[in-house]
Design brief:
Length: 253
């Protein structure tokens, strides 16, 4: 059974960077193979990880739907889609990257949703760990493509708007009846303590699990499009991510 870690938050909070650091920490801990799912149409996770998925699974499904004659004789549609998705994975030692993409229009949603749901369910069986970087709008979760999350990290910057966005995501998860094991709030890129947000965090009902400081090395990597695998092993934020996983997500054997 896969352990599913999802990262969510409003745009600009650094959730993709945190997702990549979680993947790096799991890989360096030899926790087992990881499926990294880029659920953001902007598709930045691959760039931050230094690996690229060749195509999106929504794109594959749409392409085959428009041109079913490309399916070889004697091969079922489902089998052919499975083959194309395996080919699309961005493969790196210790993890694979799956880019989900977004359906082109309303007519695509029902078909794509059903296919995506089954494909993700099938893929997840092959990985002890699944790390999902969600888009700000939570589109893929709102379509219930993932039915269970073991650990949900809601990322906020040091702002009232960020904390309120995290709280709305938590409410959405409840409304969608998505099973969630643990939910935590992370304050990211914090240059000050959380005292100014103490009342807002209390109103949100979320447990503040970590405060990650603003980090110049990570900022430089983002500006120059360098993978987070290139940052130093003793980077303070990376060390805090390791501690966060040990306390919150990683199974104790």
């Amino acid at each position: 059974m896969s352990q599913v870690i999802a990262i969510a938050g409003k745009g600009g909070t650094g959730k993709t960077t945190i997702a990549s650091l979680i993947i790096r920490a799991l890989k360096e801990a030899d926790a087992g193979s990881i499926l990294a799912i880029d659920a953001d149409p902007n598709s930045n996770l691959g760039q931050v990880l230094g690996v690229e998925a060749l195509s999106t699974i929504v794109g594959i499904i749409d392409d085959i739907s428009k041109d079913p004659d490309q399916i070889p004789k004697g091969t079922s549609k489902d089998r052919y889609i499975d083959m194309k998705i395996q080919e699309s994975l961005g493969e790196e030692e210790g993890f694979d990257l799956l880019s989900m993409g977004r359906p082109e229009g309303p007519g695509c949603y029902c078909f794509a949703n059903n296919m995506l749901r089954e494909l993700i369910k099938k893929l997840m069986k092959n990985y002890p760990w699944v790390v999902i970087d969600n888009e700000a709008g939570m589109e893929h979760l709102s379509r219930r493509l993932v039915r269970q999350i073991d650990t949900l990290f809601m990322v906020s910057d040091n702002s009232v708007v960020g904390v309120r966005s995290a709280a709305r995501i938590s409410t959405l998860i409840d409304e969608l009846k998505i099973k969630t094991g643990k939910r935590f709030l992370i304050l990211n890129k914090s240059k000050k303590g959380p005292d100014l947000l103490k009342d807002e965090i209390k109103r949100s009902g979320l447990e503040l699990k970590a405060i990650l400081p603003f980090d110049e090395e990570l900022e430089d990597a983002a500006i120059n499009s360098r993978p987070t695998f290139e940052i130093k092993k003793d980077n303070k934020v990376l060390c805090l991510i390791r501690e966060l996983l040990a306390e919150s997500a990683v199974k104790k054997e």
